[in-house]
Amino acid sequence: MITKTPKLLGAACLLAFCGSASAYTITGTVSDDQGKALKGVAVSLLKEGKNATTDRQGKFTIHEDEITTPPADSPGVAIHPAFRNSVGYISINNGILSYSQSSTSPVQVKIYNSLGNQVFKKFLQGSGTYDLSKGIEARGTYFAQVSVGNAKQNFKFTTDRGFSSSIGSRASGNALMKEAEKGEALRFVAEGYDTLTVPLGTLDTTVDVKLTKIATEQTYAFGYPLKNEPTPSKGCGKDNTLKNYFKFKGGGIEHEVYLDLPENYDKNKPYRLVFGMHCMGGSAQNVAKNEHYYGYRDKDKKNTIFVAPHGYTDQMPWRCGDNKDHLFFDEILTYLNENLCVDTSRVFSSGFSFGAMYSNSLAQTFQHRLRGVVVFATADQVIYIPKNSGKPIAWMGTVGLSDGTCPPSMGRSARDRILRNNGPEGHTDCTSEKATEYTGGNHVCYDYKTVDPRFPVKWCTFNGGHQWDMRENGKMWASDIGWEFITQF
What are the residues whose beta carbons fall under 8 Å from the beta carbon of 106, sequence distance 6 or more? Predict the structure, then answer.
């Protein structure tokens, strides 16, 4: 209710305070989980029933209805009607208390902060005016309790003389706080995002929130759906400090590591991560600088992080008799996830010969961290092969049917280790399906039909020996098909 007060009281008190003010202001910014500002989000202050919508910068403001102060020559505007009892008359105009009473009973003014603590107390006699913001040192929202005899009113105001209506006639300081703010919350609603409700401890605050996209993908007990949304690593948002070449100690052994980041690397974008594992007589440097990660780097310089680690052992390029290389892989992958923005659902390992054998070895126990492997001329011999964890993994392998170093029989054996876990119902055995192999002409690739589509198996055979860079019509077909396999997810 709005009432007018006599001009004599209103004009004198309003001369210095023309303009507008609000009793509280809530501001904030809304973004998605990648930090992008969200426009058009509906923001509601639930208990107060006030609403706002975010702008292009994701910003919003909610405040109590503005109180416009009239010019000095107009009648004063009272925010709360005057109240009187048998001994006097009280009114408040834009935070200025006007009082008049005939008895010896004083006007008692108590002021509480937003936590309900009393910060001011004063007794007023006779008639006059009093600025409720007097004696308050800090800016903010306060609550005043004004009483004469048994008559009592409670008000909320800010130090800029904003003023709001009564919030109860019998409330104490703590009760005032509870009345205004108990159970208050902001609710954020946006199409395509989970609704978020944020409890508030105060009505004068800034709230910055992030909304999460509604999960529309089917979830599984293990693995990801095809074309799933990226899963950002802990390193997302962190400035990169890693160099293109560094040393890393994992599994108790120091390794050289070559790193190639995407052009214009974005610390907030989760990238695919591909490991290139070197062969016997090869090196991490050769994989990175000469072979360009088996040709993959030439196909994608913008969306993939490439890493080439060097294996160390006394006899072979990768460990044969213990799990130290597996410990190293676990530790280096964690290190990269914590320092770079990696899509942890799209990590792959690829290699040739011993590098293929090492990748295939990792595929036995790192199904929870590797999405898939691509192996050229692999075998399951002369390498540390742990007991398979029983989980599926995407797998592609190539073998030359005249390969004397890693013979086709050993490649098929490595493949069948994978097929035993890649069935669609409870990771069942798919080894009974027979692949079509090369009998003449160009290479032959066979895609297994009985596997879970989320864990495809591709088997490629050709008329050749121990190599990864096989060419047909001038193109390295194995590299092309391997990259298609990796990027299908």
Answer: 123, 124, 125, 148
With a CB cutoff of 8 Å and minimum separation 6, the contacts of 469 are 295, 476, 478, 479
Distance between CA atoms of residues 469 and 146, nearest Å:
89
Question: Closest Cα to residue 294, out of 488, 484, 476?
Answer: 476
pTM of the model: 0.62
Q: Are 61 and 52 in contact (CB under 8 A)?
A: yes
Q: Provide the 10 A C-beta neighbour count for residue 131.
A: 14
Residues 6+ apart with CB under 8 A from 49: none
pLDDT, one tens digit for every residue, the chain (489 residues): 222 332 222 222 222 222 333 357 899 999 998 889 999 999 999 887 889 999 999 999 998 644 333 333 333 323 344 555 555 677 777 778 887 776 677 888 888 776 667 788 888 888 888 887 776 777 777 778 888 777 777 777 776 655 544 444 444 444 444 444 567 889 999 999 999 999 887 878 899 999 998 877 888 999 999 999 999 999 999 999 999 999 999 999 999 999 999 999 999 999 999 999 999 999 999 999 999 999 999 999 999 999 999 998 766 899 998 999 999 999 999 999 999 999 999 999 999 999 999 999 999 999 999 999 999 999 998 899 999 999 999 999 999 999 999 999 999 999 999 999 999 988 999 999 999 999 999 999 999 999 999 999 999 999 999 999 999 999 999 999 999 999 999
Contact between 323 and 384 (Cβ < 8 Å): yes
The answer to whether the beta carbons of residues 322 and 315 sit under 8 Å apart is: no
CB 445 within 8 A of CB 384: no
Q: Which of 345, 375, 339, 359 is nearest to 243 (CA)?
A: 339
Structure token pair of residue 237: 């948002």
- Tell me the CA distances in angstroms from 114 to 2, 27, 48, 243, 456, one per residue in order: 25, 17, 16, 52, 61
Residue 425: other Cβ atoms inside 10 A: 6
- At residue 63, what is the residue type? H
